[in-house]
């Protein structure tokens, strides 16, 4: 997925990003609210050596201090420093736990040691830091003091001349109670929450796009199948209540079916198919609605058309027009009626052959020699025969019937049909030698700007009146309308 595709995915799945952002910000605010404030007190020590006034000795002492100061910093957190501090200040903690709250740093090329103490109370943090500095100074001077050699002369104070430590530590900056906590940091936590939410949302969108194998655009469908895209039918929530498009209407759906009709007529100029199967991979992709409105559109263009309901498992063509369903294709196939006896007229150029009674063996009936004869008879009477068939993957009805047709249209639902389903469906048609005329991308999101014929204000016409075809196709009261199938 390239950057452009990723940005489009973010725009399409923006609710996911918003939810992740809100959750991350909420978590950051909750962490800030429930965190105990921590204060930090800091003191600084200067390490000096006792030398004479000679410049050489001063330089040697400076080098000696810099060489040893890194080792001194490691002594700050030892028990010989923390244990006296705990006892002196009567702290309710152990020397080890106190050591975990102390940090000692000796900057390079200096003789300074910075001691930092963290505590939940600012005054106590300052007291601990000053006490640690005092105990640390005493510990270092005691460790650096040379041992008295046997027989050495003592001074009046009782100490020999060699008992003095060559190192002395002085406090250059005493710790004071901090005015504000160092943790938590509300702004930093909020920024971290925002960044984490955006990254999490983007990651989830990328993951969903990677795992989502459905086809989002007609261009992607064309690239995947290498078949011509004959039409893109926009999504309309009113289809279950009004499946038929108006002959004189200028809605997006009406213009889309006119474009499908035109593309179908011009796609096979030299060898126009007269018997066309309209099918899909799985149920719910809009194949029945496509077959019905394509037949209506052809009839409106003056083409003598017969629409056959060849879905003998879930027939929906007759209810869409409000016609009688009990007599139709199955009645003709078993020899109980002739084609002209059960064909129902809808307008001047459109005839509908309903499914008839649902048989127990639809696959055998549709692949029979009698079915081939019926299709040949219909092709002799009408210029175009449109067959609404069952989905390809759940049942084998359409595979046997499609081999008797001269072409097939594959309906694919936007953002619903997976690539594997489309691949399997096209392979099923190829196996029986069916010529796939192209694909119809149904229930596509309506793009902004009115791509389907209006182009903004251009082409806007007054509200159309009901066409003659629709007047004759008005459903009687109580008749169930067919939705998208």
Automatic annotation (TrEMBL):
A single GO molecular function term of this UniProt record: non-membrane spanning protein tyrosine kinase activity
Main location: membrane
Membrane association type: Multi-pass membrane protein
Biased composition (Basic and acidic residues): 143-164
Signal peptide: 1-30
UniProt subcellular location: Cell inner membrane
Catalytic activity: L-tyrosyl-[protein] + ATP = O-phospho-L-tyrosyl-[protein] + ADP + H(+)
CDD domains documented for this protein: BY-kinase
EC code: 2.7.10.2
Domain Polysaccharide chain length determinant N-terminal, residue spans: 1-89
EC class: transferase
Sorted UniProt keywords: ATP-binding, Cell inner membrane, Cell membrane, Kinase, Membrane, Nucleotide-binding, Signal, Transferase, Transmembrane, Transmembrane helix, Tyrosine-protein kinase
Highest rank taxon of the organism: Bacteria
Domain AAA: 274-403
Stretches for region Disordered: 143-167
SUPFAM superfamilies referenced in this protein's UniProt entry, alphabetically: P-loop containing nucleoside triphosphate hydrolases
Family to which this protein belongs: Belongs to the CpsD/CapB family.
The protein's name in its UniProt record: non-specific protein-tyrosine kinase
UniProt source species: Streptomyces sp. 900116325
């Amino acid at each position: 997925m390239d950057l452009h595709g990723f940005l489009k995915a973010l725009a399409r799945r923006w609710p996911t990003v918003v939810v992740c952002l809100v959750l991350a910000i909420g978590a950051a605010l909750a962490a800030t609210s429930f965190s105990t404030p921590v204060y930090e007190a800091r003191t600084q020590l200067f390490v000096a050596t006792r030398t004479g006034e000679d410049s050489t000795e001063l330089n040697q002492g400076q080098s000696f201090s810099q060489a040893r100061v890194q080792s001194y910093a490691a002594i700050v957190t030892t028990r010989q420093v923390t244990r006296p501090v705990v006892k002196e200040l009567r702290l309710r903690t152990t020397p080890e736990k106190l050591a975990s709250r102390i940090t000692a740093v000796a900057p390079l090329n200096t003789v300074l040691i910075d001691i930092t103490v963290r505590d939940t109370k600012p005054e106590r943090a300052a007291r601990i830091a000053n006490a640690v500095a005092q105990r640390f100074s005493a510990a270092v001077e005691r460790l650096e003091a040379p041992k008295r050699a046997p027989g050495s002369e003592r001074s009046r104070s009782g100490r020999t001349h060699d008992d003095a430590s060559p190192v002395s530590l002085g406090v250059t900056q005493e710790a004071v109670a901090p005015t504000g906590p160092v943790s938590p940091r509300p702004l930093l936590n909020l920024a971290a929450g925002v960044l984490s939410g955006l990254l999490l949302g983007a990651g989830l969108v990328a993951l969903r796009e990677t795992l989502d194998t459905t086809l989002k655009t007609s261009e992607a469908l064309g690239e995947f199948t290498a078949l011509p895209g004959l039409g893109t039918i926009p999504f309309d929530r009113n289809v279950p209540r009004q499946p038929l498009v108006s002959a004189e209407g200028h809605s997006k759906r009406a213009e889309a079916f006119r474009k499908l009709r035109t593309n179908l007529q011009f796609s096979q100029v030299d060898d126009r198919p007269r018997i066309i199967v309209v099918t899909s991979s799985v149920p719910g992709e809009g194949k029945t609605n496509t077959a019905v409105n394509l037949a209506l559109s052809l009839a409106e263009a003056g083409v003598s058309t017969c629409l056959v309901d060849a879905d003998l498992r879930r027939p929906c063509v007759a209810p869409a027009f409000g016609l009688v369903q009990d007599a139709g294709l199955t009645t003709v196939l078993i020899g109980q009626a002739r084609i002209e006896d059960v064909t129902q007229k809808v307008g001047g150029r459109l005839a509908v052959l309903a499914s008839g009674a649902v048989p127990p063996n639809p696959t055998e009936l549709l692949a029979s020699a009698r079915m081939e004869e019926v299709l040949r008879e219909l092709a002799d009477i009408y210029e175009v025969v449109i067959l609404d068939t069952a989905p390809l993957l759940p049942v084998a009805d359409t595979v046997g019937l499609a081999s008797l047709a001269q072409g097939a249209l594959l309906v694919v639902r936007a953002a619903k049909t997976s690539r594997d389903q489309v691949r399997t469906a096209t392979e099923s048609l190829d196996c029986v030698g069916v010529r796939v005329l192209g694909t119809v991308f149904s229930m596509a999101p309506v793009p902004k700007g009115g791509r389907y014929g209006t182009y903004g204000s251009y082409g806007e016409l007054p509200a159309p009146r009901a066409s003659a075809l629709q007047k004759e196709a008005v459903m009687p009261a109580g008749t169930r309308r067919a939705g998208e199938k």
